[in-house]
């Protein structure tokens, strides 16, 4: 038990967290970032004193350092940590008399703090942890009501401070088929707030909120970021006060009455995560290491997926899909996923959601013949569901209209002709579990593509109309967990109109995400790049789409489409039944190349070069032992000068020599192509030279790329 006289130093995974715990107050973070090494009590005490500001005649003007749960009653005039009341009373809590204990948990040291507000009859239990495998910081709090009158929580946000060096903010926005678009702004005085209110993070959600040094990039500048591990309504905010305090906050957006605590009842916040790094690559690598360190992280080779959607859409029949499976197996596919259109009455998107029964009109012998053939071909079998959704034109909706969310004005606006099934009804939950589990068990389904296409705009639980969004998220998590428990080995993909539900909350229960419904490689390069701030390559579905994208109507050659899909959990959405032999053979070569290198791609460190010209991209994956790497150089728009000049390769070992060669899994460069001299026979250079001097970039047209294979080479004496 800490007596509060000395700050607490948690350090693990290359991260130091120094926390002031004096005066019975809530924890106040003095330092979050690079490891400070061993610090004795005297040094920690001096560090605390060195961090305190000069205070004049009003402590309200100088609120630093701010508790992880900022409180109005302590003079904090910024975003409040806890907003709540009991019929208009007990609305300005002041937690104090805090006690603190450090536990050396197996996954990293954790500070546990308990504090009370005796006048308001409230208690708070905090957990602040530095994760050993990654150096991520995470924290959460549980609020308990000890008074006789109910206490309503309207918002609960935790804060992570960042230093005054953090002068820029980066966040993400987007829309359908164009997720994860970065935007930057100065870290001005005031609040920059990004909220999601659609019952899931959403296509436009920022995923992370980043603050960093001026001009930070992927390889330069210290950066700090926060993320909320929650798949429902949420808010991330960056705040700078006139006194100079800067911090990042995260919490749920709670609807009226969603959290009302009776006497003795508690509410626990989701985990707020914080990552820092010397550049965005370093920051992202902490999230990647965390996900890869979990016991449930998928460790078997990620099977190459053949998804039926863009090949056949709703047009299902056994002969066509069997032929597609056979062509897929010939190309090297290892998992066949039957997408939307297989269930009762489903001919388009206007009907049948919720009727999870195999349609006998299309499948007179059930799905068993298709599944049997898929397994004969050596592939896993996966099936598409949209469990949380329902069409009004469905047997389920006609039989149980009371299971559809209704905020008091009927089921509300349709989106893609669908509404939301309220899993807060125990009978609805049980019905859904039984239907899905029955199919998984009877067919031996290995994989569920779990879609979620409508926002929860008016999610009132019938018959009283109370908000049901928070309960819906909890029930979705429960459903995923119980399906996996009932069917060991089952894998689940989080898809929500593409990348609308990507967060560390849902990733506790899923094995990959679908970053976007857009397979256009021009867009996918950026979507995957920015989704990669949180999600490692092996958990991102990356598919080779049609020559003409069905979302953008751009056309791209197979080599560019395949190269951009190479970097994640590879899949195919090309209609192999109409592809000519040349295309099929080239596709097979790309799949074989991916299989040859997926151990590297799915375990290595993701790196991005900071190039001066926005027309170019250079990114890759470097093995953990720095023995090999794979990079892609791409031209994404026409540059104002030509040729591109030299590119420098990040992430290698300065002291080792490497052979660099251009590789062409699909088709070789055209005869007569203008190539830099090194590209004809390769080149061998020290890692330091490749990092500081680089190599001449290939001259390419827009939306074209070259793969660079880099292997550690012995040095001739």
From TrEMBL:
GO biological processes: carbohydrate catabolic process
UniProt keywords, alphabetically: Glycosidase, Hydrolase
Alphabetized GO MF terms: alpha-galactosidase activity
Keyword RNA-binding: no
One Pfam family here: Glyco_hydro_36N
Binding-site list for substrate: 176, 339-340, 416, 449-453, 495, 517
Catalyzed reaction equations: Hydrolysis of terminal, non-reducing alpha-D-galactose residues in alpha-D-galactosides, including galactose oligosaccharides, galactomannans and galactolipids
InterPro entries (alphabetical): Aldolase_TIM, Alpga-gal_N_sf, Alpha-glycosidase_related, GH, Glyco_hydro_36, Glyco_hydro_36_N
Active site positions, chain numbering: 451 (nucleophile), 517 (proton donor)
Enzyme's top EC category: hydrolase
Domain Glycosyl hydrolase family 36 N-terminal: from-to ranges: 26-261
Entry's EC annotation: 3.2.1.22
Superkingdom of origin: Bacteria
Family: Belongs to the glycosyl hydrolase.
Name this protein carries in UniProt: Alpha-galactosidase
Natural source organism: Planotetraspora mira
Gene: galA_2
